[in-house]
Design brief:
Number of strands: 43
Largest sheet: 5 strands, antiparallel
Oligomer: single chain
Helix content: under 10%
Distance between the termini: 52 Å
Strand content: 35-45%
Shape: globular
């Protein structure tokens, strides 16, 4: 069964409006400081996607990538300069684009899903673009509902190297009832049939601690006794390399899983736990199939361990349903993680790791509608977390109607909640549909807050940027002042807090044929890439007659390096394989656990009297 795409699009409240359309408008800050605001009109429709940030030009400064209702993907510099626009077709873009170097060419690519709730009859697909906006490939969805049209991809694709070859695979779910892993060139690696639509986006990490990359994602489900499914939803944990289900999964719940999971070690046992919200279908007569076949559902946020067992204190029953996705951060600054999520009734909730509320929460989003009047408008977007004040404490940012609302860690609202107001005014001119982003997009070393949206009539898309007088990079006791700066946490959309990092691209053996007259030592150059966000320290431990240059170093997340291995031929005889031992590469990070921290590379030389090279003729007819 194919559920009708039911979602609250957003309600534009025309009770009272302050229209600020010119560039460089100043907004009074919560502490009395002025915050600059810039508005860039786009050649395209209302921006529906969440903000993606990534370096497309190689200058170290992230660009802004957003997608619109009309299926156009835009790439802009933080100063408003358009890099390019790409028209994907008639299908809206509602998921967040992923940005990363999928093919190892040293340039970031952009991967985006097309087709969503507002264009259910438009063809859906996943599309890969170069950093200059040229299409590399397109993978069309299947036709689950039998209408002859490839079904949409609402899911935000995630990027990760699942097999250690130094290339990034693409992981996503689709309305065509499939979870897919694509190779970097757009060919299918594997797929899993979920038997119902997938709205959820994958989270990536080593869930069960076996050194392999796993994916976690949700789906809808309906009653099919032959397949052990119920009217509700499922949460899957799957080995991302070979597609095998982890023990204890999938998990069945009584409501759809439109929310996208997040991964974090909530219990402190060294393993990733799974946190996710639900959806809103099986109590909705317009969604439940057959239509009107409703049943009571559990409105909750769930947390499970690596075996699929509920964590102590979870699930937490919520006052209303949620489609938003949980955000993870140490909001209280006590070394323990909190879970942040918003609900359809306009409340923002912050839970401690044991499922109890953090002091000061929940809070009701409040914005002024007119002098003496306020409204509490919910959103399907998700919260982000960063320090916007520069006081080393974290704030939470969440859209509400046409503006962004900010709270401090104690639940105090820092943005306007009355009119007139002396608090921050982070106002746009139309409904904000996607999650904003935080980063230094202007390259001046200070934080920017970025949101997609539209101008006042809703027909022209727009990017809004606010300037905060807060350093983007600070080193204070190892603290992270932007722990969850975008939807799905980072440019690769992995939605995993702190523990996911990995060295990739190293071989398991080196076997070299070499002529006996060749001067010793024999040299080979190896390369490796640091996946994840954290800096990785590495060190080579070589056998006595092997020299590695350099023998140690550090790699920033997402970067690569090379090193030379020089192997002596001493002791080797012609015609006999000569083992030179095992080269060991050890890796570690300052905070968290590497997916794999030791690599062993066997070294073998094979001396021959003469090494012949044969060149085959190349004939073209």
């Amino acid at each position: 069964m194919f559920k009708r795409n039911i979602v609250t699009v957003g309600r534009v409240l025309f009770i009272f409006r302050i229209l600020l359309l010119s560039l460089g408008i100043k907004s009074r800050g919560a502490s009395g400081t002025s915050i600059g605001r810039h508005v860039f009109e786009l050649e395209g429709a209302w921006i529906r996607s969440s903000v993606a940030l990534g370096d497309l030009t190689g200058d170290g400064v992230p660009e802004i990538v957003v997608g619109g209702l009309d299926g156009v993907l835009h790439a802009y510099r933080g100063n408003g300069q358009r890099l390019w626009r790409y028209d994907t077709g008639s299908a809206t873009i509602e998921g967040k684009p992923a940005i990363g170097d999928i093919n190892g060419d040293g340039q970031n690519e952009i991967i985006v899903g097309v087709g969503g709730t507002l264009t259910p009859n438009a063809p859906g697909a996943v599309i890969a673009l170069s950093s200059t906006g040229q299409r590399l490939w397109r993978y069309d969805s299947g036709d689950f509902n039998g209408d002859g049209i490839p079904n949409g991809v609402f899911s935000s694709p995630a990027l990760v190297d699942v097999n250690g070859d130094g290339k990034l695979e693409i992981i996503y779910g689709s309305y065509d009832a499939h979870i897919r892993v694509l190779n970097h060139d757009g060919t299918l690696r594997w797929e899993y049939f979920t038997r119902d639509t997938v709205w959820s986006s994958p989270a990536i990490g080593d869930v069960n601690g076996d050194g392999q990359i796993d994916l976690v994602i949700g789906s809808d489900s309906h009653d099919e006794p032959a397949y052990d499914t119920i009217d509700g939803g499922k949460v899957y944990a799957i080995n991302a390399n070979d597609g095998t289900m982890l023990p204890g999964f999938p998990i069945h719940i009584d409501e759809t899983v439109w929310s996208s999971p997040a991964l974090a070690d909530l219990t402190g046992d060294g393993y990733l736990d799974i946190v996710v919200g639900t959806g809103h279908c099986w109590e909705n007569p317009a969604c439940a199939i057959p239509y009107g076949n409703t049943h009571p559902t559990t409105k909750a946020i769930y947390a499970w361990d690596r075996y699929g067992q509920p964590l102590q204190g979870w699930p937490v029953i919520l006052p209303a349903a949620t489609m938003s996705s949980p955000t993870i951060a140490d909001l209280s600054g006590d070394g323990y993680l909190e879970v942040i999520i918003n609900t359809y009734d306009g409340y923002l909730h912050v839970f401690k790791a044991d499922g109890s509320y953090l002091l000061g929460w929940p809070q009701l989003v409040t914005t002024p509608a007119a002098p003496g009047e306020v409204v509490h408008i919910s959103t399907n977007a998700s919260p982000i977390v960063a320090d916007l004040t520069g006081d080393a404490n974290l704030e939470i940012i969440l859209p509400s109607n046409w503006e962004l609302v900010v709270w401090d860690r104690w639940g105090n609202q820092l943005t306007r909640d009355e009119f007139p107001s002396t608090k921050w005014e982070l106002i746009t001119s139309y409904t904000i549909a996607g999650t904003p982003g935080v980063g230094d997009v202007t390259g001046n070393g200070y934080l920017n807050l970025i949101s997609g949206g539209a101008l006042s009539d809703g027909t022209s898309g727009a990017i809004y940027i606010w300037d905060f007088p807060v350093l983007a990079t600070r080193v204070e006791s190892g603290a992270d002042f932007s722990p969850w700066p975008t939807f799905r946490k980072n440019a690769h959309n992995t939605a995993s807090y702190g523990t996911f990092s990995r060295l990739s691209g190293l071989p398991t053996q080196i076997y070299i044929l070499v002529e006996e007259s060749f001067p010793s030592p024999v040299r080979r150059t190896l390369s490796m890439i640091a996946l994840g966000e954290q800096e990785i320290y590495w060190e080579a431990l070589a056998p006595s007659d092997v020299v590695v240059t350099p023998a140690m170093g550090t790699l920033a997340g997402g970067t690569s390096t090379t090193f030379e291995v020089a192997i002596s031929t001493t002791g080797c005889q012609v015609g006999v394989p000569c083992s030179k031992g095992v080269l060991i590469i050890n890796a570690e990070i300052a905070n968290g656990t590497l997916v794999e921290n030791t690599f062993e590379i066997s070294l073998t030389l094979h001396l021959v009297e003469t090494l012949y090279q044969t060149f085959l003729p190349f004939i073209v007819r």
